[in-house]
Amino acid sequence: MEEYKSKIKLFVDDEQQPIAELVPPVQFDFDTSKLTDGEHTLKLISKSPTGREGIRKIKFIVKNGPAISVEGLSDNGVVDGVIPLMINAYDKGNQKKFLIEGSETPQSILSWLWILLIAFWVGQHFISSQILVCNSIKIEMANKEIWLETLITDTPQEGRELAIKMARKSIAAIQTDAETREKLRSDYANDTAQLIASANVIAIEFQTIAAANNYWKTEK
Hints:
The protein is of the alpha+beta class. It has helices spanning 111-123, 129-142, 156-174, 178-188, 192-212, and strands at residues 7-12, 20-22, 38-47, 53-62, 67-71, 86-90, 99-100, 107-108. The protein has a 4-stranded antiparallel sheet, with no helix packed on it. It has a two-stranded antiparallel ribbon with strand order 5-6. Strand 7 and strand 8 (107-108) form a beta hairpin. The longest helix is centred in the C-terminal third of the chain and has 21 residues, at 192-212. The radius of gyration is 26 Å and the shape is elongated.
């Protein structure tokens, strides 16, 4: 019966050899993992039993590589002097490990830090980092514990550590019950979207600290 059906050949870009030859109707799993990131064209050529051909081209964009986020520089921006950039890169295919890449050596976020940061996103919508810091400071002052006396640090590494501490304090200020935070850990430890959003909170805190330290520039 197949000799009386149309046949379809699939080509990618300008390749001469088809990636598949199918008899419709059929479901086909198109594997894009071997294609380079960027624009591509899927060309389908159908040939009927009478010899007539039909062609359809579908343009698509492959984005299998790690996503890159850059803060501090936009397309066609006008700049001058030294520009501090906050750069994050993450692979959406790896849900167990997320790297923050900045001016220092990239470091994995420890699992315990992931869980604490996720607790914030479970019960709250996104709130600006400055409001979170203010709420945290007010509660700490009420308990007569002043933990944030200054934003000034000696090195960028110390600044990053302070940014992580500020994020953790904000979470504890919003969800004050330690037992509740413990219960929430197992539910969101593997949610990549929540991990990325949590890391962005640290990045915003780090931007504030970097500005306060004049990006650790040394006077000449």
